[in-house]
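This section describes the prediction task in plain terms. A model, or a person checking by hand, is given the sequence of a single protein chain and must write out its three-dimensional structure as a string of tokens. No templates, partner chains or ligands are provided. The sample shown here is typical of the held-out split.
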Amino acid sequence: MSLQQQKRGVSLWVQMLIWLSITGLLVLVGLGLWKAQRPMVSVGSPAPDFNLTLFEGYNFDGAPSVKLSDLRGRLVVINFWASWCKPCEQEAAVLETAWRLYQPGGEVVFLGIAWTDTEPKSKAFLKRFDITYPNGPDLGTRISQLYNRNLGVPETYFIGRDGLLKHIQIGPFSSVSQLQALIDRLLAE
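The expected answer:
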């Protein structure tokens, strides 16, 4: 093989590498755009269904997991939280107090979803704040991705008896009365 053929071969090899890199980059950009174009969940849209495996020591009607669609007919309060989140600490007592107010009637179900957290830290948080409503981890952030949740924690979603998203609360609830007023309004619908 002559020196000129070797140069042409290297040049062809480099060209192929460049084209493969460009193609790969275009695929990544396309996937990013496709993901960004996914519809955001919004008030009035059907709530994405999921199955939440609960932390050890928590259950829902005696079961170690709960499926959102099985709760149709009840108002569901879904709270995304994390043990490292200071506003979540401030909100913990508000949520637990409201849960204890509504739990006996059975019309309202609270579900806590630990977002990007470790199980030991999540369980320590639940114990520290005496949280008794069903809670579980968002393994691989699969549930939060269904809800296009990426604004931070806490975030709370209210699912109506009809399975439609009724309200989204970004940030913590500051008082039980604030949360109670919202729940009562949604129950009256």
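For orientation: The chain has a mean pLDDT of 89.
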